[in-house]
């Protein structure tokens, strides 16, 4: 891990890594490490931890964390510029967890990054119109979605002209 972040943050990341490495078959520990690395801006390392969870099997995670893993890993892949992989992962998540509308919202961000704005709008309408009262997934990722929405112009500037 890099030198970025505060000393307490670095200690927490080190502790989480040590715990995951001490129990290499514990999906929950790798998931926690991935989330912490992601939050600290270490996307490539976070993706390694998320991939470990997928390799071990998501069925070992708590039920509510399974669709969140798809969102977090898909978003991380997008941030790494791996749009095709992000799209595939988020589509898989949508098929497996069709009522978890945050998957559609993050897939829309991938489509915007890929220059497919019409597809993104379609996904967002689908999420809006099919959201059930029981689905708190958009609320769960509210802060991230708000940040990404505020920075869409930056995403557009990074793309080559079509």
From TrEMBL:
<dbReference type="InterPro" id="IPR041656">
    <property type="entry name" value="TPR_5"/>
</dbReference>
<dbReference type="Pfam" id="PF12688">
    <property type="entry name" value="TPR_5"/>
</dbReference>
<feature type="domain" description="Tetratrico peptide repeat group 5">
    <location>
        <begin position="33"/>
        <end position="152"/>
    </location>
</feature>
<dbReference type="InterPro" id="IPR011990">
    <property type="entry name" value="TPR-like_helical_dom_sf"/>
</dbReference>
<protein>
    <recommendedName>
        <fullName>Tetratrico peptide repeat group 5 domain-containing protein</fullName>
    </recommendedName>
</protein>
């Amino acid at each position: 891990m890099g030198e970025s972040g505060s000393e307490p943050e670095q200690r927490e990341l080190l502790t989480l890594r040590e715990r995951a490495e001490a129990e290499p078959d514990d999906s929950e520990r790798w998931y926690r490490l991935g989330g912490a690395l992601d939050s600290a801006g270490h996307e490539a390392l976070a993706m390694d931890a998320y991939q470990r969870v997928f390799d071990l099997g998501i069925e070992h995670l708590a039920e509510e964390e399974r669709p969140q893993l798809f969102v977090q890993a898909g978003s991380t892949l997008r941030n790494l510029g791996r749009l095709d992989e992000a799209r595939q992962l988020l589509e898989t998540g949508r098929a497996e967890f069709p009522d978890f509308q945050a998957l559609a919202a993050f897939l829309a961000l991938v489509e915007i990054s890929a220059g497919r704005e019409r597809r993104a709008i379609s996904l967002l309408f689908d999420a809006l119109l099919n959201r059930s009262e029981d689905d708190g997934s958009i609320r769960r990722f509210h802060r991230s979605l708000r940040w990404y929405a505020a920075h869409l112009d930056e995403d557009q500037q990074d793309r080559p002209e079509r």
